[in-house]
Design a protein that fits this description.
Aminopeptidase, 2 domains, 12 helices, globular, 14-stranded mixed β-sheet, alpha+beta
């Protein structure tokens, strides 16, 4: 068998040269993910790449790209160097891109990505249990003296659209009755903007409704942070350019009831942001939007599953009890790396799970970021 050629790309120029091969590799994954594509990473990097340096480890055989580990390194507080996935905390999936049949080389691929000493902490988010990346991590750690920690992070619910499983959500929430109640007030229909001005206006409505809903809950929406909103909008417009954007609006006689930002990539519909008009809150407006979306994509036969993204929000479990378990993998060197692991891997997660502590901090951070538009 032809030997594998290993390489590491550490400049944006090398990254750009790699994109066509990266795109083809992402397209051949058995379990497709938006978060494995170079398009998603390119937009993320444009907005969040400052202070980070790319490190893309790859493998070729007979000139063809058969494996890619898309990582980067950033410098945190105290000068600690953190090696993480491209996309870091904004991605719902983190992993290795491995061509079918090349799975045995995954441990070596991850080893190449981590073998330099220019990091103090490795912090890999949202690694699916049982994936090539998770298996490779176990092999790499077994061969190294590194201190490490693996912990369950969250669930990623996924609803199959090839079966009638989605009907349980209709029954649980009595969505048929709620939809009929709205239809007695007027014509209820699903609208999909299909041109640039329509998409821009729909994104503006989504932001407005999202901000209003979070304000009612006593929170500050991330979409009020200018730098963060710029990223969300740019990613949506890039998805529109590529034909991936799915931006449904549920309207009642022209009045907006609910809207959502989805991306349809390789027959997998990824749900991201949503918002609804507060006047329709008692009718479960976003669940009605989800129902309309499910019916539409099934009728159009354009999606096999609805990926709700990471998180245990209550409305996801109303549709399905099937989910991918995601893990967080960490390894560290020296006192500085250990201290960063304690902060990022223990103290922050504890604060997130205790709103009494995390909510005031989150509010302050978002207010400060709104006052400093260049900070995402």
């Amino acid at each position: 068998m032809t030997p594998i050629e290993w390489f590491v790309a550490e400049t944006e120029e090398a990254w750009l040269e790699l994109e066509p091969e990266w795109r083809a590799l992402a397209a051949c994954l058995g379990d497709p993910s938006l978060f494995a594509t170079p398009e998603w990473h390119r937009v993320w990097w444009r907005h969040f790449g400052r202070g980070r340096s790319p490190r893309l480890a790859g493998a070729r055989r007979d000139g063809a790209l058969i494996g890619l580990a898309p990582l980067c390194t950033k410098t945190g507080l105290g000068g600690v160097r953190i090696r993480e996935w491209l996309g870091s905390e904004e991605a719902d999936w983190g992993g290795l891109l491995v061509a079918p049949g090349a799975e045995p080389m995954a441990p070596d691929l991850l080893g190449v990505a981590l073998r330099d000493r220019r990091w103090d902490l490795v912090d890999l988010w949202c690694v699916p249990s049982g994936s090539e990346a998770r298996v490779a991590w176990g092999s790499v750690i077994e061969r190294s003296p590194l201190r490490h920690r693996e912990a369950p992070q969250c669930q990623n619910p996924v609803l199959s659209l090839r079966t009638d499983e989605w009907m349980q959500g209709v029954r649980r929430e009595q969505l048929g009755r709620k939809r009929r109640a709205l239809e007695r007030q007027g014509a209820l229909r699903l609208v999909l903007p299909d041109d640039g001005p329509g998409v821009a206006a729909a994104l503006g409505d989504l932001r407005r409704l999202h901000v209003e809903r979070w304000r009612q809950a006593g929170e500050i929406s991330r979409l009020t942070v200018p730098a963060y909103w710029d990223w969300v909008r740019d990613l949506a417009l890039e998805a529109f350019r590529l034909g991936w954007l799915y931006l449904p609006r549920l309207e009642l006689d022209g009045r907006l009831v609910a809207t959502g930002l989805f991306v349809l990539y390789r027959r997998r519909l990824f749900q991201w942001f949503n918002g609804h008009a507060l006047e329709f809150a008692r009718h479960s407006p976003f669940l009605l939007l989800q129902l309309a979306v499910i019916e539409h994509v099934r009728a159009a036969d354009c999606a096999d599953c609805l990926d709700f993204g990471r998180g245990d929000e209550w409305y996801k479990s109303r549709w399905t009890d099937k989910a991918t378990s995601l893990e967080r993998l960490m390894a560290w060197r020296h006192v500085r790396g250990h201290a960063a692991q304690v902060w990022r891997g223990r103290i922050r997660p504890w604060a997130w799970s205790n709103p009494r502590w995390s909510r005031p901090v989150r509010r302050v951070k978002r207010v400060l970021r709104r006052l400093a538009p260049g900070v995402a």
